[in-house]
Amino acid sequence: MELSLIPRLKHLDNNSFFLIAGPCVVESEALCMEVAEKVSDICNRLGIPYVFKASYRKANRSRLDSFTGIGDEEALHILHKVGRQFDLPVTSDIHTDDEAALAAPYVDILQIPAFLCRQTSLLQAAALTGKVVNIKKGQFVSPEAMQFAVDKVVQTGNSKVILTERGTTFGYQDLIVDFRGIPVMQSFGVPVVLDCTHSLQQPNQSSGVTGGRPALIETIAKAGVAVGVNGLFIETHPKPAEAKSDGANMLPLDRLEGLLERLLRIRLAVRS
């Protein structure tokens, strides 16, 4: 898939990695606008293609009392408004077949969560919307097996597919990233994204709240860029400690610009 098929994606002539970034979930319009404005300004200055990300609903949470969202309709309208106001493509994840048609009018990319990457009917429903479909590799799936997930979308009539690496289950409470999987998945003819924040999650904690190792975000991102990944996925928040979802593994917003500057230097070095 050519990245030019993503609506409103800018700076494609700079030969840079592209960035998918934003808060984990739509907490409020003010938060989404703040993050989108800041990240958009940074990416325009650095010449990085940028996609705004926030989940309109969080369906996979550890505990019943975990925050899941402000309401589907309100959150989707906020995502749509962000895209219009900053002239950006936007993405959000979906979890059931009917959510594909619900979310498609508001976003440019439909994201398939890792736990659902084998869900045939969900992949087909996403494909039928005609939107770009970003499939996260399951923590339990080999890179080679993701060819079948791509095939399900393509054989439904939609060739606009992205794959995202987000780590592989290591024991019960940790993940590791096998960077060999990036060129394997690129061999399928699709762009591959490295999720630098979810790859550092520590799931299944006894507290019922997922942990993380955000101090290693830069390490994971640098390795991904060195390997030649097409895009990076980074969840970011002005105050991660106060975030309503995944705060334990998000990057503080004020650290994003410096990180991207360093990553661009690595990108230039490996492509020279």
Shape: globular
SSE order in H/E notation? EHEHEHEHEHEEEHEEEHEEH
Gap between N and C termini, in Å? 24 Å
At the fold tier of CATH, the topology name is TIM Barrel
Q: Give the helix level as a range of percent.
A: 25-40%
Secondary structure elements and their pairing?
Layout: E1 18-22, H1 29-46, E2 50-53, H2 72-86, E3 90-93, H3 97-103, E4 109-112, H4 120-128, E5 132-136, H5 146-154, E6 161-165, E7 168-169, E8 175-176, H6 181-186, E9 192-195, E10 201-202, E11 211-212, H7 217-227, E12 231-237, E13 251-252, H8 256-271
Helix pairs in contact: 1-2, 1-8, 3-4, 4-5, 7-8
List keywords for this structure.
272 residues; alpha/beta; TIM Barrel; 8-stranded parallel beta barrel; two-stranded antiparallel sheet; 8 helices; 33% helix; globular
